[in-house]
């Protein structure tokens, strides 16, 4: 890696006096990038808190080479020894959970309670991966045919990569790398350039846990770095989370280059409320799921489908909760919702709100300026609520990815189902009702990867799998759980027969069981 030099391991830690200078993490050590980087901002103030390099092709090659050099040895390491490293890593993440949460909040903007929840869900994924000896246990059939035994084993793919978004800078990568590494692969992470610092701390924790150098690498960068990983012939698989157009492109290019690809895209998650539902509970759930993390979650509820007579009282209940939410920086212990991640995100969300007003939607709660601090710093949009939105309006059709909730009124349950079926996204959907029959029909009829019954954000725990349908996911398998084990391994079936003096001679017939 010509011209590259090592930086102190602590260089990614923010200080009050100056932004920290991030490095890539390649081969078990921080390596300075050779190209000018990008500023990482605190969304609550707009201040620069770090600078991250932008990886170029030679640095991508170096990371792939470092990973490939050690992967085969790791893949031949016993499952028991791998599990020891996973358990140590889990304990280190748990011990440092407050520091990790603060690092997330500083660069993402989400409040500390939300960041702590992200770390907790990341720990869930590590704990699942700790069971790798059981997860990779193969099957066997003795005497499948006379004197012939069969067994199947799962083997690692090699070098795999994760390209992850800003909204969960710790949790989403942990859906990927603990299980990939436990399965015997080497991993290259390309985190979002908007909040990359926590990935460097995770790299340190992997090293402290005893993971051999080169098995976990971090490349900072933008779309060019991501494209270089997707194109690279030395990368066997890519896991991606981001927008639908990019997810579709990653899937197409990855498959052309012979990779396994799981690419999670956008979402428009619906919450259906029937008239028999507990409306206060439904309003609590809608406000929590729509405005948590400023709506910047792939499973955030962005559409409430209010059925029949539930609509008017439900909108009033949600509006009261939206107005009561305390918006502030992550350093405010009373804050419930922080800013959006960037000025570009804020401006895009504000334009969407303005467009919906022009289109005739009923603006019940306007968050455009309500959260802005007196000094004008940061990227603020408060909770926003629209009523009487029509499906043809852009505020319904497009993914807003901000604290904007729209209410669509429909006459009955069947109309609610048709609305969801017609939407191009299929990440998740929920129903609030006391009617078990309606809930069972909803579970079966809705084309989405995650269904909630009186649960607004139905993200499965780590021992189940998660993945959307339709334009919300491209690829064959979901992330984490058993689907993740399958994604990061290849199945090999071994047929064996030992020498038998009674079985000799040429036989050109097709093998058949006897």
Describe the model:
The structure is a single chain. The chain has 514 residues and is an alpha/beta fold. The chain has helices at residues 57-75, 79-95, 97-108, 112-129, 132-135, 171-174, 177-182, 197-208, 223-231, 244-256, 279-291, 311-324, 343-359, 394-397, 413-422, 436-445, 481-487; strands spanning 20-21, 24-26, 29-31, 38-41, 48-52, 140-145, 148-156, 159-163, 186-190, 216-218, 237-241, 260-264, 269-273, 301-307, 362-365, 384-387, 404-410, 425-426, 428-432, 450-453, 469-470, 473-475, 489-497. The strands form six sheets. Strands 15-16-17-14-13-19-20 form a seven-stranded mixed sheet, with helices on both faces. It is globular and about 85 Å long.
Give the structure's gist in a few sentences.
Helices cover 37% and strands 21% of the residues. It is α/β, with parallel strands linked by helices.
Question: Secondary-structure blueprint of this entry?
Answer:
Blueprint: E1 20-21, E2 24-26, E3 29-31, E4 38-41, E5 48-52, H1 57-75, H2 79-95, H3 97-108, H4 112-129, H5 132-135, E6 140-145, E7 148-156, E8 159-163, H6 171-174, H7 177-182, E9 186-190, H8 197-208, E10 216-218, H9 223-231, E11 237-241, H10 244-256, E12 260-264, E13 269-273, H11 279-291, E14 301-307, H12 311-324, H13 343-359, E15 362-365, E16 384-387, H14 394-397, E17 404-410, H15 413-422, E18 425-426, E19 428-432, H16 436-445, E20 450-453, E21 469-470, E22 473-475, H17 481-487, E23 489-497
Parallel strand pairs: 1-5, 8-9, 8-11, 9-10, 11-12, 13-14, 13-19, 14-17, 16-17, 19-20
Antiparallel strand pairs: 2-3, 4-5, 6-7, 7-23, 12-22, 15-16, 18-21
